[in-house]
Specification:
CATH architecture of one domain: Orthogonal Bundle
Oligomer: single chain
Shape: elongated
Order of helices and strands: HHEEHHHEEH
CATH topology of one domain: Cytochrome Bc1 Complex, Chain D, domain 2
CATH superfamily of one domain: Cytochrome c-like domain
Distance between the termini: 78 Å
Strand order of the largest sheet: 1-2
Structural class: mainly alpha
Number of strands: 4
Number of helices: 6
């Protein structure tokens, strides 16, 4: 046992001798075991760069880049942050709306394609938990996650459309919100598809 303490003391002395006490100053460069994070190849904003032919570090967006949002009110991909009105919030004041927003401009000609889009988005984002049929028995239910809503039962079947939209956007219980993943129009398409599933069971 005494050899263990002797070896431990020797290692401590060697360590302090090589590295010095905490707070000691040295003119020698530090010992870096993983120097890759100290010297990274990167471009600093508003700084010149020899990497690019024009010498500028700041670059324009890649051609075809779609902005997440825009100050001029143009949303090529709509996620609705900071927007008011039923289309973006699912509410009329303090109350959830029951119908579909006028902004969707649904007609007999485009309603079927809208439902197909909702089915596709439901399959991507919702079916893993709620199941392909919406009965709450998706893949995740096999791993013991409790509280997955059956979309045919109370309270989901009694929600107005605006409430369903709000749950998709902001989540409820164990479900996190998808407001930053699913564009506004696609969220309404999912609402329409859920309504079609519920109607098919009646």
């Amino acid at each position: 046992m005494k050899y263990f303490f002797l070896a431990y003391a020797l290692i401590a002395v060697l360590f302090i001798g090589l590295n010095g006490f905490r707070g000691d100053k040295s003119s020698k460069p530090p010992i870096r075991l993983f120097p890759d994070m100290d010297e990274q190849d990167k471009v600093k904003g508003q700084r010149p760069s020899d990497f690019f032919r024009d010498g500028f570090g700041s670059r324009k967006p890649v051609a075809g880049t779609i902005p997440h949002s825009s100050d001029d009110g143009v949303f090529p991909v709509e996620f609705g942050e900071g927007r008011e009105g039923y289309y973006y919030t699912g509410r009329f004041g303090d109350f959830y709306g029951k119908g579909m927003p006028e902004e969707l401009q649904l007609t007999e000609d485009n309603a079927e394609a809208f439902l197909r889009r909702g089915e596709e988005r439901f399959g991507i984002y919702c079916a893993v938990c709620h199941g392909e049929s919406g009965n709450g028995k998706g893949t995740i239910s096999n791993y013991g996650l409790a509280g997955i809503a059956n979309l045919y039962d109370y309270p989901a079947e009694s929600y107005p459309n605006g409430r369903l939209y709000d749950v998709i956007s902001h989540g409820k219980g164990n479900m996190s919100g998808y407001g930053y993943n699913i564009p506004v129009r696609d969220r309404w398409a999912i609402v329409a598809y859920v309504r079609a599933l519920q109607a098919s069971k009646k």
